[in-house]
Design goal:
It is a single chain. By secondary structure, the chain is of the alpha/beta class. The chain contains 18 helices and 8 strands. The chain has a 6-stranded mixed beta sheet. It has a two-stranded antiparallel sheet with strand order 1-2. Helix 13 crosses helix 15. The longest helix is centred in the middle third of the chain and has 28 residues.
Length: about 375
């Protein structure tokens, strides 16, 4: 199990504890993590008994959960000592296991991380482990695998960005310009030794990403948000919105270099997280208030959603068609598509399908990396 000394700050330790609580079966969502940070940082953590009582009040919703909570609390906070270290104290330690750059503990809801699983992970070769983690469904990732994917994803997205840029650069040269080729080779007696090609006008594509954060997407939305944050580091022309029953622009939040800060900002301002789903209404809101500013002929629009809409199909059909007409390419990535035997029979998904240029999966990191082929062809 993770321990509070594995993190770089007290607030990150609190977020890590929420992950441990989730794995133990407690209902510890993003709001619970935020409440824990805000409550304990007020000074209550200075009294260890009061600190435990305060966290129990946040995480336990029934009396029978109290014993299980006490066990995970003491393993996480007291196993290696009773003092809760802050960032400055931890910096003075000679040896410390540092948290991953983007503190994936706030994102995962995988299975519990047992000692046996940890030992198996150590003996797995790096290449095999990378392939396994990339192809594992987000909902089945353990805490250690989540941290490993956190570090791996940054590297893979950077490589994807470089490959796209190289292929785009090669594709900028067009057909042979005969007139310029002749003039260029006059000094060779008219023999054309070197051909001159025309250059295509450089057009930078823009990414517009609409992320579903409704309750039905709870198991995936945190991982997709992390993927979105990583993309933002390498593709500057990105606009991002989160939606469920309402729509909210989150571009400025994911621009923060620290994912933990980005998540905290989003949890504070995206108040409709884990609520119902009104895809059509939210896309209509986008068309009415944002499309003119953020959509043009170079925009690739990507919807990350399971398509479980509870609104009127007619509203969704009209909204998705408007987005289609204003986009260079319209892509829908659905986590459910990665399940065996999945068929897009849900009303919302059936309504949207005719307007899509591409319909793909988004259940693991490997499926998200397939976005490279879409961006290269853009």
């Amino acid at each position: 199990m993770d321990h509070y000394t594995h993190y770089n700050s007290f607030s990150e330790s609190l977020v890590g504890f929420s992950q441990v609580a989730r794995e133990a079966g407690f209902k510890a969502g993003l709001q619970c993590s935020q409440d824990a940070v805000l409550t304990t940082l007020s000074g209550i953590w200075l009294d260890r008994d009061l600190f435990e009582y305060a966290l129990a009040a946040l995480y336990c919703h029934a009396e029978e959960e109290r014993l299980a909570f006490t066990n995970i609390y003491r393993r996480f906070w007291r196993q290696k000592g009773t003092r809760i270290a802050d960032k400055r104290a931890q910096k003075n330690k000679k040896k410390i296991t540092k948290a991953p750059k983007s503190i994936a503990v706030m994102l995962g809801q995988g299975e519990s991380d047992t000692d046996e699983h940890s030992e198996d992970s150590k003996t797995t070769t790096g290449a095999n482990n990378s392939e396994t983690v990339k192809k594992t469904d987000f909902t089945k990732l353990s805490a250690s695998e989540t941290r490993f994917l956190d570090e791996l994803s940054e590297k893979l997205i950077r490589e994807m960005s470089l490959r796209i840029k190289r292929k785009k650069k090669k594709g900028k040269q067009g057909s042979v310009d005969l007139g310029r080729s002749i003039r260029k080779n006059i000094q060779n007696g008219g023999t054309i030794i070197r051909l001159v090609k025309t250059k295509k006008k450089k057009e930078k594509f823009r990414l517009l990403i609409l992320l579903d954060v409704s309750g039905s997407m709870d198991k995936y939305s945190f991982y997709l948000l992390k993927f979105l944050w990583s993309l933002r580091n390498h593709f500057k022309q990105i606009e991002a919105f989160a939606f469920s029953t309402k729509l909210m622009r989150i571009t400025d939040y994911i621009a923060d270099k620290d994912l933990s800060v980005a998540l905290m900002m989003i949890s504070q301002y995206v108040t409709h997280w884990s609520s119902g789903t009104k895809i059509g209404d939210c896309l209509k809101d986008f068309n009415d208030n944002y499309a003119k500013r953020h959509l043009n002929g170079n925009t690739i629009t990507i919807v990350l959603s399971d398509g479980l809409d509870t609104g009127e199909p007619e509203v969704l059909a009209e909204a998705i068609q408007k987005i289609k007409l204003r986009s260079k390419k319209l892509v829908w990535l659905n986590p459910l598509k990665g399940m065996n035997g999945y068929e897009p029979i849900q009303e919302g998904m059936k309504t949207a399908l005719p307007a899509l240029d591409h319909f793909g999966a988004a259940h693991n990191f490997a499926s998200l990396l397939e976005l490279e082929n879409i961006l290269i062809d853009a």
